[in-house]
Specification:
The protein is built from 13 helices and 19 strands. By secondary structure, it is an alpha/beta fold. The chain folds into 2 domains: 89 residues, Urease, subunit C, domain 1 (Roll), CATH 2.30.40.10; 273 residues, Metal-dependent hydrolases (TIM Barrel, Alpha-Beta Barrel). The strands form 4 sheets. The protein has a 6-stranded mixed β-sheet with strand order 3-2-7-17-18-19. It has a 6-stranded parallel β-sheet with strand order 11-12-13-14-15-16. It has a 4-stranded mixed β-sheet with strand order 5-4-1-6, with no helix packed on it. Strand 4 and strand 5 form a beta hairpin. Helix 5 crosses helix 6, helix 6 runs parallel beside helix 7 and helix 8 runs antiparallel to helix 9. The radius of gyration is 21 Å and the shape is globular. The model has no long low-confidence stretch (mean pLDDT 93).
């Protein structure tokens, strides 16, 4: 096997230690050595550049390209698959080599990436979000019509509205059958759904406990769309692994998260992304737009409270609420919310790998792990400039994106 030497760079290895000069050797898609004065069969000169582990996004939607509700209704069903190819490529090009898709991507999309048919980050998929009637995932509209604009039902992506513990049990089993690596549930209302309130809790505790029980039996974790304070606490009590969004946290909630080891995936860019999309002409219902305006400040304050309390944080964006390829704007918001730049990068590498159960394979540059690398021109801790400084991206030792088909 060919030993490839990345020579002369400054390495941020993802563990949180300060960046320092180091060579990295890759063989057969894995790191085999890290240090100074190393050798290899092939040499990649990264002198004067920083080298990072592959980055993560733990909350994205690659099958959705925008949040213009009316445009989605006018778009041919199958077009979303072709658009997803571009979304995957854009995500990979900015150094994100692993994602947790929070709804939309199905088993076929995941397998297409695994088989090399299309370039993209490796992914864990949730397929669809489980919701109660009248919840964040209910496609019912005030007119009485139903319009699943963002998440249409089709083979491999089943309808996911449930009520009661037994319906929950069946739906979890169905989603796992269809390929879900992680189960996603809405434990509160949301911003883009017209007839619910982000401050209201959805599902009762026994329903969520059934969800976690069934997921655990199949070796899966649960992620929660969680904005309501009460809904967040119910999710924590039920054993949900990650609270995604976490708009309305209080001291009791963050203390519960610390004590139980519950993760926060903040998606700080998402509410402003809804506002930006509307300002750029997207057709978003006024009720949804007003909810986005109402939660921006509370979201930032909740994140700061969580950081100060020591809640475990992993990076997630909620793209396509913001455009795919702009995922790294989240890093500046995390830093503004109280995390040090080094903590932000750890959240985007090592922590995210731990959240997804991939820490033995990814997240840090250490011998034996998969050789995902991002080469950065300049200081990677200057997050506002980072997207333009992504020079080269490697996934398992191979430079990406792959050539166009």
């Amino acid at each position: 096997m060919t030993r490839t030497l990345f020579e002369g760079g400054v390495l941020f290895d993802g563990t949180g230690t300060a960046p320092e000069p180091a060579d990295v050797v890759v063989e057969d898609g894995r790191f085999v050595d890290v240090g100074l004065g190393l050798d290899g069969d092939e040499r990649v000169d990264v002198s004067g550049k920083h080298v990072l582990p592959g980055l993560f996004d733990c909350h994205t939607h690659v099958m959705i390209s925008h949040v213009d509700f009316w445009q989605h209704l006018q778009t041919p069903f199958s077009l979303r698959f072709y658009e997803a190819m571009h979304n995957l490529r854009k995500t990979l090009e900015i150094g994100i080599t692993t994602i947790r898709d929070a709804g939309g991507a199905d088993l076929g999309m995941k397998v297409a990436v695994e088989q090399g048919l299309i370039p993209g980050p490796r992914m864990q998929i949730s397929i669809r979000m489980i919701s109660q009637t009248g919840g964040h995932g209910d496609p019912w509209l005030p007119s009485g019509a139903e319009a699943a604009a963002f998440f249409p039902v089709y083979p491999g992506s089943p309808e996911s509205i449930v009520n009661g513990a037994e319906e929950m049990r069946v739906k979890v089993r169905e989603l796992i059958r269809d390929g879900a690596d992680v189960l996603k549930v809405a434990v509160s209302g949301g911003v883009l759904s017209p007839r619910d309130d982000p401050r209201h809790a959805h599902f009762r505790l026994h329903e969520l406990e059934t969800l976690v029980e069934e997921a655990s039996a199949a070796g899966r974790w649960v992620m929660a769309h969680a904005q309501s304070n009460v809904g967040i606490k119910q999710a924590i009590r039920a054993g949900v692994r990650s609270i995604d969004h976490g708009l309305f946290l209080d001291e009791e909630a963050v203390q519960m998260m610390v004590e139980r080891g519950t993760w926060l995936v903040p998606t700080l860019a998402a509410p402003q992304g809804v506002i930006d999309a509307a300002e750029n002409g997207a057709q978003i219902p006024e009720a949804s737009l007003q909810k986005a305006r109402d939660v921006v400040v509370a979201h930032a304050e909740s994140f700061r409270l969580a950081v100060e309390a020591g809640v475990k944080v992993a990076m997630g964006t909620d793209s396509a609420v913001t455009p795919h390829g702009e995922n790294l704007r989240e890093l500046s918001l995390m830093a503004a919310g109280g995390m040090s730049p080094a903590q932000v990068l750890v959240a985007t590498t090592k922590n995210s790998a731990e959240l997804m159960g991939l820490h033995d394979q990814l997240g840090t540059v250490e011998p034996g792990k998969r050789a995902d690398l991002v080469v950065v021109d300049g200081d990677p801790l200057e997050f506002d400039k980072l997207p333009a400084r992504i020079g080269r991206v490697y996934k398992e030792g191979v430079r990406v994106p792959a050539p166009s088909l």
